[in-house]
Amino acid sequence: MAYEGIILGMGNPLLDISAVVDDEFLQRYDIKPNNAILAEEKHLPMYEELAKNPNVEYIAGGATQNSIKVAQWLLQHPGATSYIGCIGKDKFGEEMKKNSKSAGINVHYYEVESTPTGTCAVCVVGGERSLVANLSAANCYKSDHLKRPENWALVEKAKYYYIAGFFLSVSPDSALLVAEHAAANKKYFSMNLSAPFICEFFKDALEKVFPYMDYVFGNETEARTFSKVQGWETEKVEEIALKIAAWPKASGTHKRIAVITQGPGPVVVAEDGKVKTFPVIVLPKEKLVDTNGAGDAFVGGFLSQLVQEKPIEDCVRAGCYASNVIIQRSGCTFPEKPDFK
């Protein structure tokens, strides 16, 4: 099977500024534990404070980019993945390019002069992460860039597409263009609910692209928020997954599969009106470093097997393997070679 360019990811490239902080830090900046939000004025001094932390780490991130990086790592075929997003022409942008290229990803960034590369504050308390994204340049992505022949060629070459819901706050028309292409060409389009605020405040954009989704990823908090916003009146993850899978589709080529993770709880998969659950790999508390990128890594692992046309069980197993590796390290990073069997 020809793997070159088989997966295309599109999203918000962010440089993670990651450090261990305490509860007082979260309270001071009005941050909830284990949540993901967009930065407001009150959060801006925090980036400077984190940068002064002696243990601060800079890691090329952003939800979609993390997933693509993990899929690339597991596939071990240089250039199997491509990625599109917007960065600034600055030091952080150069860092991002270097990092992604060394990971073997074919990146086609839209580079802007006027706005700095986006950053994401990763505040780690007791292994759990809270994310505050300052999108900056990531917010400047335009569908004109996607339509350029050299970039649209990546869309045409790919058979599988993955976009995190976060991107709907930036360029919903770009997401729709890719979704429509996938449906028209019998390819696979997948998205992530990404965060409660996407389900709540970008409801219309999400619903517009929902009919095109062949795979819907999310965690239990996002699933419950989505259910609430839809007026489904259920908190049961299995029921929500079934309803997501049953949402009408734009093309009848593929059925929709909903995949909901629950941290250390079992992974819930709904398809064809049935639910299956899969246990995750149990990790002793003392081995947990931080959960940043765990959900992204799960998707990356899942996609790495999906493109090889492996059964859903293998996709979930690879997802669980990848997230287990990631949570034992700082940020969305991994050893040089995977040992997934």
Automatic annotation (TrEMBL):
EC class (word): transferase
GO terms of biological process kind: adenosine salvage; AMP salvage; purine nucleobase metabolic process
Catalytic activity: adenosine + ATP = AMP + ADP + H(+)
Domain (Carbohydrate kinase PfkB): residue spans on this chain: 29-335
UniProt cross-references to InterPro entries, sorted A to Z: Adenokinase (IPR001805), Carboh/pur_kinase_PfkB_CS (IPR002173), PfkB_dom (IPR011611), Ribokinase-like (IPR029056)
Active site annotation, chain numbering: 296
Gene3D superfamilies: 3.30.1110.10, 3.40.1190.20
Pfam families: PfkB
Cofactor(s) listed: Mg(2+)
GO cellular component, one term: nucleus
EC nos: 2.7.1.20
Pathway(s) per entry: Purine metabolism; AMP biosynthesis via salvage pathway; AMP from adenosine: step 1/1
Family indicated by similarity: Belongs to the carbohydrate kinase PfkB family.
PANTHER family: ADENOSINE KINASE (PTHR45769)
Biological function: ATP dependent phosphorylation of adenosine and other related nucleoside analogs to monophosphate derivatives. Essential to sustain methyl recycling.
Protein known as: Adenosine kinase
Species for this entry: Cucurbita moschata (Winter crookneck squash)
Gene name of this polypeptide: LOC111441708
